[in-house]
Structure formats: structure tokens, C-alpha cells
# Entry
Amino acid sequence: MSRRPRVLLAPDKFKGTLTGVEAAEAMAAGVRAAMPDADVRIVPLADGGEGTVDAVLAAGAEEHEHTVAGPLGSSVSARLALRGRTAVVEAAQACGLQLLDPTPATALAAHSIGVGELIRLALGTGAERVVVGLGGVACTDGGAGMACALGARLLDASGRPLPPGGGSLADLASVDLGPLRETVGGATFVAATDVTNPLLGPHGAAGVYAPQKGAGPAEVRLLETGLTRWAQLTEDLGATPRDLPGGGAAGGLGWGMVALLGAGLSPGADLVMDLVGMDEALAWADLVVTGEGKLDRQSTYGKGPVALARSASDRGLPVLGIGGAVEHESWADHGFTHVSSLVELVGEEQALRSAGPALQRATEAAVRRWMDEDTAPVVRAD
# Structure
């Protein structure tokens, strides 16, 4: 007796409408409508930013919820995922841009203290490896707030503790990293990011990203001055040079993690696929269905669905991609068998208002089309 066809559902979030888990559940309903006897497995994706903790939790990790400092100091709720001795956190849960209304003042005051608190809490669970998903943060402090939460002492010329926020770093006079190093001990750290910007300069954390966080030209200059001072003083203590590619991620938090915690930088999508056991899932599957809110040229630069499609295609697996919106691209060159769009199927308004039913319908149509057109067997030999 032949076994049931195995379908792996591994979408990223459809931003603003569906989480990765919700998208996968909608896809599952579509697959079952087209292929009632299918054996379905859900393994949501993420690229190291929003949704990373959810993806790891969906893969069986243990959830821990905590209260930490938000980007302006008020308390926020944040979660981490613990899988074995590896803890996974998202910087944006503690200091995300979505937690405030960005203004020039918040661009200077926002900090990464909550990220450091999450790391400390992760270490308290017994984790020996901490993965921090970067991206989407409100701060431009080079990880200074994170460092303070882990024990570092940042002082001004009068010997007083420096106020939090990237805007105060220009007044930094001395740094003591000794207590931080005692806190982190022998733990290892990984920063998940696809950004290659350096910490400083016109392509750096302040020059490129601070305007998106409310900073005007004057605030960008002040933040750049502060980050330069922060890098200079920590380099004097043996920290990583400031021209590190990827150091500008998350307001310089990428540089701060490498320089202060000895972290490695890793492409977010590849790291998440490893954390959720994607290799084993692909070895199990006969068909892969993936997607995200928008499939466009940017998706081809390290985003989860494209990274997955390439990996699946290398194994000879058919891959169906579904985007909320899809831009013209040679998707077959990136491993996709077929790509379809919710907007083209139901219109933009309906795709936004009823994303779940629209995705279910699109998935059913995509699977039926593949079954009608594809000449390869639905079930591979084990």
C-alpha cells in the first residue's frame, strides 16, 4: 500500500494580516481541500526578525514570558523560546519601533536595555547559546543599553551613569565592561540579521535607519557622533572594529553584540531553518508550500521563503510559492515550481480584509494546478 502524500507548509508571516502560524493553518485547509488524503506538516518560517520566536515555538520549543524595559523605559511583555540549551529572543519585542510613535525625541531617547534584560533572563534559564533576532527596533544606541542591562558601566565626564538612549552617547567619557563579562560568562551568542550595513558612516546605523525612527538631520548627526564615541571607547578595551559588515543592524545592536558579547552574525533565514529542523522536514516531504506577504526582488536577498525554495529545489522537491502580492521575477531560477498572488486572485482589498480565506483558496488552486500540470509522482519513494 502506498503511503499518503506528504506536504510541508512553511510560510513566513503575511505582515499586517497573518502570522506565520496562521498562514500555515490557512494553507493546510487549502491543501486538504485539494488533496484530502495528504499528510500535512506545519513548520512556519521567519527571517530572524518578527515571528522568529513564534516559529521556534511552533517547532516545539519551550515558551518563557517576561516583563522587560521597553524602548523608552516603560514595561513591556516579551517572550523567549528555549530549545535544549539554546534560547531565542527578538530584539523588537523589547525595543521595537511598533512600541512607540516615532519622533525626533524618541529617536534620541530609545534604548536597548530590554534586549539585555531578555538576554540575562535567557541565561537564567540555563541557556548556553542565545540567538537574538535583530531588526525593527526603535533605538540607535549601538547596543549600549543592552550592555548596561548586562552589567556594563557607562559614565559621563563627571563620573555619573550615562542616561539611556543613543542621544546621550556623545557625552560618554568612560566604559567598564568587567561586570558584563562576568554576567555572560562562557555563553555563546548569535545575532540573526541579513543587513550588511556598518555601524558608522553614510551607510551606517544612524545615516540609513535613524530617519525611519523619527530622526531628522540634527538627530542623525548627534546619533552618529554618539556611536562614534561609543565605538572608540570600546575599541580601546579590545572590542571589534567599527567597520564590521552587519554592525549597523538594529541601530548598531549587531555591532554591540559582536563587539561586547563575541557574537557571530548569521543570515536570519538560514539560522531559523536550522533552529526549526527544516532539513529533517524537507527529507520527509513530497511537496513544499511556502510564501509571505510580498514576494518581490527583496525576497531574493535572504528572505525565508526563497531560502527554503532554493534548499527544497536542490533536493528535487516541487515548491509552490504564494504571496499576498507578487512582483515579476524569474521565480523558477530561485527554486519555485509555481508562484501565485492573493491580490491577483481576489483583489487587494479582499486580500487584506480576509487574508485567511483568500490564502486557503489560493493554496487549494495552486495545489490543484500543480497536480494537473506536473508529471512527477506526488509521492516520492522513501
Remarks:
- The chain has 16 helices and 13 strands.
- The chain has two domains: 6-45+277-373, 62-269.
- The mean pLDDT is 93.
